[in-house]
Amino acid sequence: MAVELKVNGQVHAVDAEPDTPLLWVLRDVLGLVGTKYGCGVAQCGACTVHIDGVAMRSCVTSLARVGAKAVTTIEGVGAGPVGAKVQQAWTAIDVPQCGYCQAGQIMSATALLTAAPKPTDDEIDAAMNGNICRCATYIRIRKAIKVASGQVEA
Amino acid sequence: MDATFPHSPSRRLFLKTGAAAGGGLLLSFNLPAAGRAEGEATANPFSAFVRIAPDGVVTIAATRPEIGQGIKTSSPMLIAEELDADWSRVRIEQAPIDAKVFGEQSAGGSTSTPDDWTPMRQVGAVGRALLIQAAAQRWKTPAAGLTTEPGFVVDAAGKRRASYGELAQAAAGLAAPDPKTLVLKDPKTYRIIGKPQKQSDTPAIVTGKPLYGIDVRVPGMLYATFLKAPVFAAKVAEVDLAPAKAVKGVRHAFVVDGGTELEGLLGGVVVVGDTWWAARKGRNALEVTWADHPTSAQSSAGFAAQAAALHKQPPHRNVRTVGDVKAALGGAAKVVQAEYSYPFNAHATLEPQNCTASFKDGKVEIWAPAQNPEDGRELVAKTLGIKPDDITLHFTRSGGGFGRRLMNDFMVEAAWISKVVGAPVKLLWTREDDLQHDFYRPAGYHSLTAGLDAKGDLVAWRNHFVSFGEGEKFVRAAGMNATQFPFGAVPNYALDVSVMPLGVPTGWLRAPGNNAYGFVLQGFTDEVAHAAGQDPVAFRRRLLGEPRLIGEPGKGDSFDTGRMRGVLDLVAEKSGWGRKTGKGVGLGVACHYSHRGYVAVVMEVAVADGQVEVRKAWAAVDVGRQIVNPNGAEQQVQGSILDGVGSAMGQQITIENGAATQSNFGDFPMLRFADAPDVEVHFRVTDHDPTGLGEPALPPAPAALVNAIFAATGKRIRSLPIAGQLA
Ligand code: FES
Ligand code: FES
After folding, report:
1. What is the DSSP letter of B669?
2. Which of A36, A39, A100, A128 to mutate to test the pocket of ligand 1 (most atoms within 8 A of CB)?
3. Do residues B212 and B396 lie in contact, with contact meaning Cβ atoms separated by under 8 Å?
4. Which ligand has the nearest atom to the CA of B347?
5. Which residues of B touch A35 (CB under 8 A)?
6. What is the CATH code of the structural domain delimited by B314-344+440-713?
7. A3 in helix, strand or coil?
8. Among B198, B404, B673, B693, the residue to mutate for chain A (most A Cβ within 10 A)
9. Neighbours of B139 (CB within 10 A)
10. What pLDDT is attached to residue B411?
11. CA A128, CA B673: separation in Å to the nearest integer?
């Protein structure tokens, strides 16, 4: 039975079992493949999306739990002013190496800057610690967050 | 106009000029793989290309796999520089995989930069010469009076200018000059090389565009998961497929018998569904009984016990002897002895292994995030019983490589599954599959003995290395070259080896061998320095001695003591070596040569309550006279050093009952954001051909870390990982 799912401002009729994690609905049903799979158990952050503005791990969030809430993914986050600023900073600093983790990093950073427009280093640590970067781009991620929040120049 | 020019004997550049479809100049070229037989037939040897369109846009085909090392940007930079292109108007396309067309398309061993350095610049220089020639003809003036500015030919007086786009059509009709007759640019005039250039895919990455293997979608595609035996190469004894087939969305479930070769198709159960989640649920419903396997008793603890026993015995063989170690140790004023070891380790690319394949009418099309795809073609052809020519391979970007994707097991699995189900299939491994079916960095055990004379100089060095293999043969990536420093710097030297058999798949992990030897050799060197009562930097300086070459010039393992001394001095200066640190704080140093790069690292750590905090790292790097892309170079050095920190801190794969016990990032910890120190990177420019940076900065990092921990606490770490040893 199809349920309605709101993603990036658009309502989709989705035919998937209610226990299906949002990650696989996005990727395999809707074809929104920007959200990545890294661990499936909420330990790497590659699958991070916003659900009603809150950063969540889509690999452990079932379709049933999302319900009528609004989902934002990497494909849509640039439509908001904070997301756009974060993406610009990521490009200016040229953060990615392989790039695989970066969708999740950008989603976590955008949620952080929405809640705390000028985060301290400790706040950045706390918000970003759940996102693994195997290429270890952490130094540039920190810098990009500071650029996006206007604390340092690119 | 056709004109072809063989390049150097080992790597011959073939080049052809002509008109591009849609107008403009097409420079086609290829770089046959080093070692490819002379005159070997190629269907179309000219499909790597540079295209200059009438609107002035320059398109360059990037031919090597991009795994996060930045080659998709840095290799085109070489062409664009000598072409004198306007970099903002250069577009980079990923070329398909075809060794016949593009030559070697692998990425490994940090070889891409040294291999591409000269021929790629020559391609650009030919293009520039043709455009100048076209302008000379148009203006009826000698070409010698003309020069270029980015994207334009101009006359010396600066009166006339013509864009590359305007000239491209005319240039296409000219004969190309022999690249060897062209003078390449003076590096002082570089406008693109040596300037930080952004990675070309960054805008697509930050907006979530489909780029990776896992993102491939083919019409009618199904999703597959493959449950393999926990014990490597064991087979299915018994399974009831009905519970998997009963799951909604599951289309197929079947047993793969599999072979015995660890790098090929192995036994297990495949479940295929409409979504990957459906397939995964089906898999979770399975109960499989695995057949007994001869390697099911092996364990990491067992290997360590065997190694300890072997260390007490005479070695199986001596690999290299210089002087007389036994006599020198007998006469030494001081003897230092220690055992070092490190565990199996996994690559853990953040994008798990995956591959998409579509098998139809005896032919298969494959989309693979691969580092070494041509070997995969052979493997697929052999396993499926089809001709290599009936396989079409497409590159995708890879979410990390680190050597894992030099193996092609995922490729043969996807092709096999597609053939069985008769539909295009995307195979995606779980993280658990990925950690439990890797080609691991082999564990290793070193028993080291050093002798010091009364002045504190190193007079003898012996390493009894216990590794895996049989007879004279090591398993993949488990061998050690005999010329690792301090070979050549100590008058009495011996490398002895003993081996034990192994039934665990092994392979190349970033800076293979060196990622472990750096820790062992530079950790022990530090111990010896302290035993000699000397400062660790001063001791290394003395050991390096006068600038000279150890080994054969130009060979990968020749070692220039002067270049190492240069980076050691530089890192000591930048880190403020010798300064006072507070209680529980220490500085550690290490320097290591690998992949033709010289890297010295200093780390500052603070240790409190058994917790290690890495405060900062400094790196000094010598990879020759030219850093092609300083932006990418900094990324690679920082990434490599943090990779070394993360792996040394907590990573290991433990074998029990023949299988890997770690399963996900909970028990295989990755370096995390809050634990990543700043890494200050300094390059030392020396007059040598540029070499690669994907690997050489990693090996000194674990040693600098354990040496810093010693400085902070007095505790010597001799086995990895560090976690748990300081409590
Ligand atoms: S895939 Fe969801 S946290 Fe790793
Ligand atoms: S950029 Fe490769 S995992 Fe983060």
Report:
1. P
2. A39
3. yes
4. 2
5. 208
6. 3.30.365.10
7. strand
8. B673
9. 16
10. 98
11. 6
Question: Tell me, what's the pLDDT at B94?
Answer: 75
The reported pLDDT for the residue numbered B12 is: 57
Specify the residue for token string 């989640």. B277
Local structure of residue B463 (DSSP, 8 states): E
pLDDT lower than 50: segments of chain B? 1-11, 33-47
Q: Which residues of A touch B212 (CB under 8 A)?
A: 36, 100
User: Fold identical between A2-72 and A78-148?
Assistant: no
pLDDT at residue number B97: 58
B-chain CB neighbours of A1 within 8 Å are: none
Same fold, B213-293+353-428 and B314-344+440-713: yes
The CATH superfamily of A2-72 is Beta-grasp domain (3.10.20.30)
* A103 Cα to the center of ligand 2, angstroms: 10
Contact B120, B79 (CB under 8 A): yes
- How many CB atoms lie under 10 A from the CB of residue B142? 8
Question: What CATH number belongs to B213-293+353-428?
Answer: 3.30.365.10
Second-level CATH architecture of A78-148: Orthogonal Bundle (1.10)
Task: Give the confidence band of A154 by pLDDT, cuts at 50, 70, 90.
Answer: confident
Which spans in A5-51 are helix H?
Answer: 22-24
Q: Which amino acid type is present at position B595?
A: H
Report how far residue B638's alpha carbon sits from residue B631's, in angstroms, rounded to the nearest whole number: 11
What is the per-residue pLDDT across A20-34, written as a single tens digit (0 to 9) for each? 999 999 999 999 999
Domain ranges of chain B: 14-206, 213-293+353-428, 314-344+440-713
In angstroms, the Cα distances linking B218 to B30, B96, B181, B215, B402 are: 30, 17, 48, 10, 27
Q: Note the CATH number of domain B14-206.
A: 3.30.365.10
SS3 (DSSP) at B111? coil
User: Strand B58-62 to strand B48-52: parallel, antiparallel, or no bridges (unpaired)?
Assistant: antiparallel
**pTM of the predicted model as reported, rounded to 2 decimal places:** 0.93
Cβ contacts below 8 Å, chain A against chain B, sum to 173
Look-up of token digits 């997301």: A83
Which three-class secondary structure state does DSSP give residue B440?
strand
Distances (CA, A) of A146 to A93, A142, B479: 11, 6, 45
User: Rounded to whole angstroms, how far apart are CA atoms A144 and A150?
Assistant: 10
Annotated domain spans of chain A = 2-72, 78-148
